[in-house]
């Protein structure tokens, strides 16, 4: 993440997805720039996980904590 809140791409999405699946997670928040890497994740894992693509920290907070800023 940058100082301005932009979410940067990550490495090892396939391995991280498989680990999350083994741990029993159902939803994963990933950088939008990693969308192309989803094709590397095995279909059986991809089908059972929900991926939330984000590009800014505000989106991460909204999805992770379920908070929305109603003032804007």
Q: Classify the secondary structure makeup into a structural class.
A: alpha+beta
Instruction: Note the main sheet.
Output: 2 strands, parallel
Helix and strand sequence: HEHEH
Mass-distribution shape: globular
Report on this structure.
- This protein is an alpha+beta fold.
- It has one domain.
- It has 3 helices and 2 strands.
- It has helices at residues 13-22, 43-48, 57-65, and strands at residues 27-31, 50-54.
- Strands 1-2 form a two-stranded parallel sheet.
Indicate the topology.
Layout: H1 13-22, E1 27-31, H2 43-48, E2 50-54, H3 57-65
Parallel strand pairs: 1-2
Structure at a glance:
The protein has 72 residues and is an alpha+beta fold.
């Amino acid at each position: 993440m940058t100082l301005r809140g932009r979410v940067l791409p990550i490495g090892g999405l396939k391995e991280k997805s498989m680990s999350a699946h083994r741990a029993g997670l159902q939803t994963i928040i990933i950088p939008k720039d990693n969308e192309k890497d989803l094709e590397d994740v095995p279909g059986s894992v991809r089908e059972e996980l929900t991926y939330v693509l984000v590009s800014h920290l505000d989106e991460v907070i909204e999805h992770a904590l379920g908070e929305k800023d109603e003032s804007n």
